[in-house]
Amino acid sequence: MYSRWNNYRDYLVKLYGSPVYRIGIDGGFSCPNRDKNGHGGCSFCDGTGAVAVYQRKSESGFTHSSGFDDEVSRSLLPRLLSIEEQIQRGKAFLSRRYGAKEFSVYFQSYTNTYDCVDNLRRIYDSALNTGNYKEFIVSTRPDCIPDDVLSLLSSYSSSMRVWVELGLQSANDRTLRRIGRGHTSAVWKDAAERVHAHGLMLSSHVILGLPGESLEDEMHTIDLVNAVHSDGIKIHNLHVPGGTRLADEYLEGIFTVSSEERYLESAELALRRLSPDTIIQRLICETPMHRLVAPRVFPDKSLFLSHLEMVMEAHDTRQGDLYGC
């Protein structure tokens, strides 16, 4: 599809012989970085926990072009239906929209290892027993992935490929403090190395355009991802959801968000700096517009990726051509 970087979809087709679609699940987890009353946590978190769009039934009346809705953005979404119901809904949506036939289970919302091992086993098993899946993906924090949990996750590796998605966002500790991540880059690096030590696939989450960061800072983050030999990466442009501390700072004029031109520059350089073997799983954030304060003027995913491909073709650049430089 895209020739200038190691695209996740193409990787899956090559590995399994056909496209594989992830079913995003809210397993009912919380986050150790948020208070029980919903306050605290990362400055960019609006309390939805990155719930998949097709699982947000209460927001079904909104579209990509909807105006910002302050009431929706400031309320915590109710816990979704059971895992089995979510999987059925996800399969139906993905089959209808994309003609999907092969699936992965993706525990997406909040911190999906934030429980005791026995409870995690029951939760994971309840999802994986609903069908035959190509991959099992668990998104979590680097300070919430002890070795007993990693051992549990590795126990599923005999029947499917298991990924651990670790939120990094930035390798710069001053930025991590500013956005309230609650961990350091050293904690993330240790977790990443332990993920690999347990024979699991590692995906790294990175945000480009964070407040106060330069291109040099962003490339320092990419260098850390390279240092741990991350198998995959999700790169996001900075989004400012309503009802967050980040939104308050943005509305006070403390920082700005990247234009498409600025983010194209960052994304191209990040791809060039990355190992050519790293799988690019995402290059743009897709917060629904009715929950988004900024950026309000930005192309959708398909159009942005086309623009990035054209820019890299014009510059004759590709993923990894600056790797190790």
Commentary on this structure:
The chain has a single domain (8-315), classed as Alpha-Beta Horseshoe (pyruvate-formate lyase- activating enzyme). It has 325 residues and is of the alpha/beta class. Helices cover 36% and strands 15% of the residues. Helix 10 packs across helix 11. The protein is built from eleven helices and nine strands. The protein has helices spanning 8-16, 70-73, 83-98, 117-128, 147-154, 173-178, 185-197, 215-227, 245-251, 260-273, 301-315, and strands at residues 21-25, 103-107, 135-140, 161-169, 201-208, 232-237, 240-241, 279-282, 292-294. The longest helix has 16 residues, at 83-98. Strand 5 (201-208), helix 8 (215-227) and strand 6 form a beta-alpha-beta unit.
Secondary-structure map:
Blueprint lengths: L7 H9 L4 E5 L44 H4 L9 H16 L4 E5 L9 H12 L6 E6 L6 H8 L6 E9 L3 H6 L6 H13 L3 E8 L6 H13 L4 E6 L2 E2 L3 H7 L8 H14 L5 E4 L9 E3 L6 H15 L10
Parallel strand pairs: 1-2, 2-3, 3-4, 4-5, 5-6, 6-8
Antiparallel strand pairs: 7-9
Helix pairs in contact: 8-10, 10-11
